[in-house]
Amino acid sequence: MDNRKTVKSLALLKVMLDRNENLKSYMDLFIPMVIELMKKRKIKNFGRNEISNVIQCFYNEYGLKIPYHPMVTIINRMIQEDYLKTTSVRQHEPIQFTPNYDKIDQTEYDISSKKFDAEFDTVVQEYVKFANKKHSIRLTEDQAYDHIILVLKDHDLDIAFMNQEGTSILPSQEDGSNLSKNLFYDFVRTLFEEKSQNLELVNEIVFGYIIASALLFTEIKPVKTIKRKTTYYLDTGILFGLLGINSNYEQEVFSDFIYLLQEKGGVVKIFEHTYQEFINIIDSCVEWIDNPNYDPNKASRALLFFKSEGYHRSDIELFIKQLPEKIKSFGIEIEDIPDPNINTNFQMDEEEFQRKLIDLYRENNPNFDEEEKEGTINYDVKSVSAVFKQRGGKVARNIEECKFLFVTTNSTLAFASKLHENNYPLHDTFYIPTTVTDVFLGTILWLSSPNYLNLEDFSKKHLISHCYAALNPTKQQFTLFLNEVNKLKQDGSLTEDDITYLETSPEARRLLQEKTLGDAMKITSKTPIEILQEIQSEADRKAKEKFTPIQTELEKRNKELIEELRQNKEEIDKKEKQYIELSNKLKEEVKKEVNTFSIILIVFFIIIFVFLQIIDENLITININNNIKIAIKWISLFISIVGIVFNINIKQCKNKKVNEIVAKKLLKKYNITSKNNKGY
Are 420 and 359 a contacting pair, CB within 8 Å? Predict the structure, then answer.
């Protein structure tokens, strides 16, 4: 099977949902696809015994495996809409279905999604480049589409919606390796962290898969609330997520989930033994968090979290003290298990269920340690059995009929519960098992909601959460990694800080999974060093990214200052030039003024001298005292000498007062402040 067909068909379902605002049933989305199939195959008629042929043709055309009963439901809805007519020539003969091409030809159905096809082809090409650039893995586009199907099949829905025969709506895959799945998970996570729009396109596929999977649950109808109150019991996995002992993002996912349950009229509880199991795990963290003998190889998920977040004994003790109030704030009640003496007729065979659960764990994980998981398994069996008993043997075929449900993050536990219940009477059709995953329950509830946009958000959040969870190294991987760290510790290749970081840092675990993609065999003696180097490179890159804007701003400011200085220099040079020109002009004008003044004084002295000479010549005729005559002659002689000397020096006159008087006059004329022009 060409998985490209499957992926494009899933995308098509989402496109058609967007085009049908008043959808009565999700089954109606498949009617245009069946109509188009009949037109292509030129089907004239078929009987009930030929429905399997229609299913096969549908699979060949669209890459989706529609089970028998959902296909019958689709056919019945086509009859109601007059797209199919039923005929029977003779009594007791099988009914024949005949396409009503008169109506089909008049009805316009656009089942193409060319725009999306082109966009998603681009995403696939980007994924191929990503695999080669980051992980040196060469992929064809066909392999890329195979990886998408693998990731979808790895989703809880594929198990939860699987029918009685174990049939999935998706085609089977030969390559089921963790490496292939984790490669695409790493790609999706990168899209998320880079806030790429391509993530929305990937979510379109996931959303289409949700719709396609829901086919196995044939009676999902939009309802605002569930009239009958359902009691939901949570497992420890949901408590961990809800209380943030994984990541803040996962806490947001589970907070939304609890709100959804309560919004639909549900009552949310945990069993007392579930609460005690959780407390025991946290208490163990108190004992080991500051213990010098702390061994990350033996640490629980909670202890690794507290260690990575820098918690100390007092911090965890405070966390435990606040725990009852935190649980209460979410509207969650704590309840004892039912009295074992009540409803004994509906007691689950716990031993058989436990054996089935352990078998599935071993099947899914060859390294499964039964002894290590014994306590958890006992708690899970106890919880499932308690809810099974409360149901009193009643079979719920939809959420509205459910009174009690055990909700878990463990898809293997949910699947084991379903397989076990298949052996009980009246469990021969689709039903809601005692135990369901949070993804399955959230999907069913959102599908019953009038606003499917909430389901889009729900599916995206779970997709991201699933990616981060899948990209956490397994215990086997982490053990092998720590062994290599210890070897490097012994030969002195690592510092104590390096060792502490590699043992406790979530970043180190993330890079371990990125480098190995879930393949423990890729872990070598070089892996710890490579992780440290990559962490340092990443730190340098972030520091550079942080510094670059500052550097850019400084460079910009420096350029502005240089330009400002250049402009100032040009202005100064211009002013200086003007100053020099003006100075020279002033000097010339002062020189002219002084020369003019000199000439006036010379003329004045000449006039005075001549006048005194005339007086001197006439003194003989004037009867005046002889002393006066002598004084007049001496004055005349003195003025003559002064005039001669002054006439010689007047042109080089440096008299400060004269310069100041003349300069002030000129400066005032040119509107220049004298303080800037000292020296005139």
Answer: no
What are the φ and ψ backbone dihedral angles of 234, each rounded to 5 degrees? -100, 150
Tell me if 591 sits within 8 A of 632, measured CB to CB: no
Closest CA to 196 of 540, 589, 424, 464: 464
| Packed helices 31-41 and 3-19: angle between N→C axes, nearest 10 degrees | 130
Residue 233: helix, strand or coil by DSSP? Answer: strand
Q: Which of 434, 354, 445 is nearest to 390 (CA)?
A: 434
| Closest to 120 (Cα-Cα) out of 49, 180, 197, 214 | 197
Which amino acid, 239? L
Q: SS3 of 234, please?
A: strand
- Determine the pLDDT at residue 91: 62
Specify whether the CB–CB gap between 216 and 224 falls below 8 A.
no
Number of H helices, E strands in the chain: 26, 8
432 phi and psi, to 5 degrees? Answer: -90, 115
- Candidate ranges 159-173, 246-260, 308-322; pick with highest mean pLDDT: 308-322
Comparison of pLDDT for 668 and 132, the residue scoring more: 132
Which tokens is 506 given?
């979530």
The three-class DSSP label of residue 405 is strand
Neighbours of 85 (CB within 10 A): 15
CA angle 98, 104, 108 (to 5 degrees): 160
Identity of the residue numbered 478: F
Confirm if 411 and 239 have CB atoms less than 8 A apart: no
The 3-state DSSP class for residue 47 equals strand
Contact residues for 196 (Cβ-Cβ < 8 A; gap 6+): 190
Helix/strand/coil (H/E/C) assignment for every residue in 608-652: HHHHHHHHHHHHHHCCCCHHHHHHHHHHHHHHHHHHHHHHHHHHH
pLDDT for residue 674 is more than 50: no
The residue count for the chain? 680
State phi, psi for 233 to the nearest 5 degrees: -100, 130
pLDDT score of 675 = 46
Task: State yes or no: pLDDT of 322 exceeds 50.
Answer: yes
Q: What is the pLDDT of residues 557-594, one digit of tens each?
A: 888 888 888 888 888 878 778 777 777 777 677 777 76
Nearest to 391 by CA among 357, 431, 351, 352: 431
User: Where in 283-418 does DSSP place strands (E)?
Assistant: 333-335, 404-408
Measured CA to CA in angstroms, residue 586 lies from 446, 667, 676 at distances of 93, 8, 14
* pLDDT over 90 at 29, yes or no: no
